[in-house]
Design a protein that fits this description.
Order of helices and strands: EEHHH
Strand order of the largest sheet: 1-2
Radius of gyration: 17 Å
Helix content: 40-55%
Largest sheet: 2 strands, antiparallel
Oligomer: single chain
Number of strands: 2
């Protein structure tokens, strides 16, 4: 997997940051998370206070997720493989009225 991010200065692209990662590494981590979930019986363990970020956009996502947790509506969470979206799903579940049910 290759991620490319432009470096911009004064409205001009002056370079790029390129990150390489073996897909097998991502799929191995995903498989390890899934195995861990099976071993723990699929119990949601994460709460919002367990998720730490300094990213402003991610903080906004977490605030929105806290609000969604109070609703009875279904929530769709979409993210790239390896971004651990299940943590947000668990936090929403554990802060909802359904926390003691599936």
């Amino acid at each position: 997997m290759i991620l490319i991010a432009p470096i911009q200065y004064e409205d001009k692209t002056t370079g790029a940051i390129i990150s390489f990662q073996k897909i097998s590494d991502v799929s191995t981590r995903t498989k390890n998370v899934q195995n861990d979930m099976v071993l723990h019986g699929f119990f949601a363990q994460t709460n919002f206070q367990d998720i730490y970020t300094e990213n402003v956009q991610m903080r906004e996502v977490l605030e929105a997720a806290r609000a969604f947790a109070l609703s009875n509506s279904p929530v769709v969470i979409y993210g790239q493989t390896g971004t651990e979206t299940y943590l947000i799903a668990e936090a929403i579940h554990n802060n909802s009225n359904r926390r003691s049910r599936p």
